[in-house]
TrEMBL record:
UniProt key word Metal-binding: no
Spans traversing the lipid bilayer: 125-153, 165-194, 206-225, 270-291, 303-323, 361-383
Keyword list, A-Z: Cell membrane, Glycosyltransferase, Membrane, Signal, Transferase, Transmembrane, Transmembrane helix
Principal cellular location given in the protein's record: membrane
One matching Pfam family: PMT
Residue ranges of every copy of the ArnT-like N-terminal domain listed in the record: 30-237
Superkingdom field: Bacteria
Cell location: Cell membrane
Signal peptide (residue range): 1-24
Membrane-topology descriptor: Multi-pass membrane protein
UniProt-recorded name of the protein: Glycosyltransferase family 39 protein
Length: 499
């Protein structure tokens, strides 16, 4: 057992370390990561820890600040880099891995616990989100902590677990809002309906009144301060993001992007993607057992075993909640995966045949190897990415103090905003003409879509010159008017407007 444990521990460490290393090499690709990274950068730059800012002057009401607090704090400690902004998500994933270990060991054995951790760490969404600037890892940490704490207390554990249930609520409420108690409450209610007699007395073990008061004291001050500082926040966040968004698939009220209009029930397909490859393997194995005539055993064992029924309810909660919602993303599945992994980990730990041993070994390696290869190809320039890191870096090295800021015509990508430290500008074609006339720049650096033909480039200016391009944009240099010409234009009534 000790040798097997050490081998599994080494494999798990290798998986987590591989993601840790990859965080520093993979650039931010539009749109999610650089958008949230820029919000965290602005928080660290301005020192405003109450209101996350989408851009200067525009508050970001879409999410509570916990993930931005963690990312801004990492910037303060490590400086601005991809690694520092992704590091908090990696730590949150590490916390979830430990919680999976703790609950699986409580249910079954060390061997099941180690396989549950391996399954969870090597699922597609877990592995990706562990090194990504997103809010979902913090929500999943909060829901996992609350649900694991709840069941451990129901099983007789005391001490800090009685209070960590409410800590999980706090983490969830400050990372995603009211969605957290919903995802925590659904599996608890379902499990209580199945195990009411055994669980009724145990519910008293949780300090409900004091814990709820503590939760309110830790959560409510930020919500109140956020509304006072930027009025309208509560209406947009509580009603818009948590009611209108999910009832209206084409909700047009999103201030920071666009609604994701998916077919109803698409969340179940997202589960297959998020749990890849383990979810597919588990479903195939379950189907084989079902058609071999073990139907009553599967259903009866699930209902009669309180451990299995709790894990199943916790794993299904996100899909049940989002089934009728059209505005969904595959990242919404993350709170399900720790509990899905424990159910699959129990099956994977029972290696009864050679083909099962080979299959589970391949499943452990599949996602980490694929993503590591992709990161390597991207770093070598063979895998095109939607990122402006290289273009912005070229501008920063080539431009002089008399040149214009980096200009993106008509559309400014989030990655350009982040990598330029908020200095890149979005300008329309007409605005570019005014800029050429009225601003005393030696040269203008303008990024336009790569698909623009040469005749359209020449239409911007006769002095246009292309200096580089990436997968989406080409960077142009346009000579500005001489400074003495600027003064003449100003004398003739052409005014210079601040950008």
């Amino acid at each position: 057992m000790s040798k097997r444990f050490n081998v599994c521990l080494l494999i798990l460490a290798a998986v987590l370390v591989s993601r840790f290393i990859a965080m520093a090499f993979f650039p931010f690709a539009d749109t999610t990561e650089p958008r949230y990274a820029e919000i965290a950068r602005l928080m660290a730059e301005t020192g405003d820890w109450i209101t996350p800012w989408f851009e200067p002057g525009i508050p970001f009401w879409g999410k509570p600040p916990l993930s931005f607090w963690a990312q801004a704090a990492a910037i303060k400690v490590f400086g601005i880099s991809e690694f520092s902004l992704r590091f908090p998500s990696w730590l949150a994933t590490l916390g979830m891995v430990w919680l999976v270990w703790r609950l699986a060991r409580q249910f079954w054995s060390v061997q099941v616990a180690q396989w549950s951790c391996l399954v969870f760490a090597t699922m597609a969404l877990t592995y990706i989100s562990a090194g990504a600037v997103m809010t979902d890892a913090f929500l999943a940490l909060g829901t996992t902590l609350a649900l694991v704490s709840f069941y451990l207390v129901m099983a007789g554990e005391g001490g800090p677990w009685r209070w960590s249930f409410f800590l999980g609520l706090v983490i969830g409420l400050l990372s995603k809002g009211p969605l957290a108690p919903v995802l925590i409450g659904i599996p608890i209610v379902l499990w209580l309906l199945l195990s009411w007699r055994e669980a009724t007395n145990n519910l008293r073990r949780l300090p409900w009144w004091r814990g709820s008061l503590l939760t309110a004291l830790l959560v409510c001050p930020w919500y109140i301060l956020a509304e006072l500082k930027t009025p309208g926040f509560l209406d947009y966040f509580i009603l818009g993001e948590h009611v209108r968004r999910f009832l209206d698939p084409g909700w047009a009220g999103d201030l920071y992007g666009s609604a994701h209009n998916q077919p109803e029930g698409m969340i179940w397909m997202f589960w297959l993607w998020a749990s890849f490859p383990w979810g597919i393997v588990a479903l195939v194995s379950l189907a084989l057992a079902w058609f071999r005539g073990n139907r009553r055993g599967i259903v009866g064992k699930t209902i009669s075993d309180p451990d299995v029924s709790f894990l199943l309810a916790s794993a299904l909660a996100p899909m049940l909640f989002f089934t009728l919602a059209g505005n969904t993303l595959w990242t919404y599945i993350l709170p399900s995966l720790p509990f899905t992994a424990m159910l699959i980990g129990r099956w994977a730990s029972q290696c009864e045949s050679l083909w099962l041993c080979r299959m589970r070994g391949g499943a452990v390696a599949l996602v980490p190897v694929l993503l590591t290869v992709f990161v390597g190809l991207a770093e070598a320039g063979w895998a095109p990415l939607k990122t402006e890191k290289e273009l912005v870096s070229y501008y920063q090295q080539a431009s002089n103090t008399d040149d214009s800021p980096l200009i993106y015509l008509n559309d400014l990508p989030f990655s350009a905003r982040f990598y330029s430290n908020g200095n890149a500008l979005e300008v329309t074609e007409s605005g570019l003409g005014e800029l050429l006339k009225n601003k005393p720049f030696q040269r203008l650096y303008v990024a336009v879509p790569r698909t623009w033909p040469d005749r359209k480039l020449v239409g911007l200016s006769m002095s246009v010159r292309k200096v580089m391009s990436n997968s989406r944009y080409q960077l142009l240099v346009i000579k500005g008017l001489p400074r003495d010409h600027q003064s003449v234009s100003g004398a003739n009534g052409v005014r210079s407007n601040d950008i």
